Amino acid sequence: MKFSTAVMAGLLFAPAASVSAQGVNDAQIASIVVTANQVDIDAGKLATTQASDPDVKKFAQLMVTDHTGVNKQAVDLVTKLKVAPEDNPTSKSLKSGGDENLKNLNGLKGAAFDKAYVDHEVAYHQAVLDAVDKTLIPGAKNEELKALLVKVRPAFVAHLEHAKHIQASLKK
Fold first, then answer.
1. pLDDT at residue 113 greater than cutoff 50
2. Residue 162, Cα to own-chain centre: how many angstroms?
3. What is the reported pTM?
């Protein structure tokens, strides 16, 4: 599963770097934010039904709840701003990486599922934080969009730390 986690992280880093070099607009940022959250919602929903460890199930439900909330805020904001999310290499890469992760997770059961899900969550949240810091916040032109990204960033940090804590406990 290490390979899958590395692939997922690579899928996010490479496109984010290329988008950053080209510059991103607010419509592309909106698409990246909504897609990134949806990827985590989808994985979390699967983990709430497939995980065997109670802490992993609880974390998965938290991911569904928190990322659904962030998506609602993002959609409400882009609707208010009359910005239609625009597909771009990063959002497409996130979607395909999320689909690949679900495919991999669907083939696993028990402790193997728990480990793969949590390992992915650690790599994914780190990659998303890097994209938020290096691409999305610097690239946002609209101050309300930038403020939303800054506002939700601590939740991604908390998710990363929580996932790392669970990852460490699963290794015992």
1. yes
2. 14
3. 0.85
